[in-house]
Fold:
Amino acid sequence: MKLKGWKDLPPATVVPASTAEEVETGQWRSMRPVWDESKCIHCLQCWIQCPDRSIKTDEEGKVTGIDYFYCKGCGICAKVCPKDAIEMRPEADFI
Amino acid sequence: MARRDITSGNWAAAEAMRQINPDVVAAYPITPSTDIPMKFSEFVADGLVDTNLVTVESEHSAISACLAASISGARVMTASSANGVALMHEIFPIAAAYRAPIVFALVNRSIGAPINIHCDHSDSMAERDMGWIHLYCEDAQEVYDSMIMSVRIAEHKDVLLPVFVCQDGFITSHCFEPIEFLEDEEVKNFIGERDPMFPLLDVDNPVAYGSLALTDYYFEIKRQQIEAMKNVRKVYEEISEEFYKLTGRKYPIVEAYKTEDAEYVAVIMSSATGAVKEAVDKLRAEGHKVGCLRVRMFRPFPWKDIAEILTGKKGIAVLDRAASIGAGAPLFTEVKGALYDSGTIVPTNSYVYGLGGRDFFLHDAEKAFTDLINGDFSPEERYLGLRE
Ligand code: SF4
Ligand code: SF4
Structure:
């Protein structure tokens, strides 16, 4: 992303609403949650607790995976899962 | 027909606020500025203004409420002094960065300790790098006029910065003097309506203020504030000219008193200017070519004007009502910096006077001039009215 100069930047620290959607917080991740569909009972504990709205669900409210664009790798989902269906693994494993 | 009355600096500020009729005033009382919100709360109670007066539990909350109201689109004013100002400190740079055009009646009082309710400039000088415009008034008339002009300056689209309208605690704030007021209608017409840039209450165009800007954007946002401050001068000149046409009262950024042919000039701010002018007249009657330069606008600092007036003089005395402990006094270092750019060396003495409200007498002003006339210059800071 090309950064703006001071003349093109909106004044007063102002930013339009909802710009957080454009920020790839997934870049901050050092540990990656890996979801195991076969163990998941779709209780949605992980969906409720995820601070970054990164647990993806379908129309029926079933977990379909993890959104790595936003997922910061905090590990809360793995911690709260009653079925150990999410495993935290180092990002280095995926290079 | 202009209305004349005998009133104080504080009541003059409050009267200006009544006529301005701001949307929000959030304030917490502290001597010597207490009079302002006190008088203003009477106007609110009597239904003379439409203002939402927010009574809070501290100065920090007062300025926080002011800031929130200002970025919501409201016209906002407040007042404080000394340690109250210090408690607000955290919010000042935020207000400037959010470009919140708050008009703030700052009644100068010494920062404790020791506890002291009297005047010096240690409270406002501590805020000089927070991105606010600083105006220092000599008398109550100037306070009244500056409150009204400041609404326009602060809200101008090329500026959008908060303003401190400073007056000397007790000396100006509590002494009564004759003042000429504008008619309510004249004030209303002069200030107009606020046209906010990104009001938070505009729910159709939602914005967020003050989100995180790290190594990527913080620097650019500061540069924008610097540009806004640079624009103040031009805007100030336009608005003060318009005000002059309305009232006949002129407020130059710096006031030069008999400086043109002067060999020696004393530079000063606020109420003590009167004593210096008196000394100028007295010494001139004795044949000495002396003059006085009053700095009204301290931020943005008028380097050019000061350099122009002082270049070629034989000696300068800079009189500060605040010390910068461990460095040069605030006005002195700025004046010296201004002179450096002019390329000529003028011997300059630094005098600190009046801390904690210590009286500044005619003989103190004369003493500074006498040093200059006698060629008594030294780089060490000097003190007027101090017991050794
Ligand atoms: S908490 Fe575990 S079991 Fe429950 S929905 Fe999430 S992954 Fe599936
Ligand atoms: S690791 Fe944290 S951010 Fe990522 S999906 Fe799990 S709870 Fe959400």
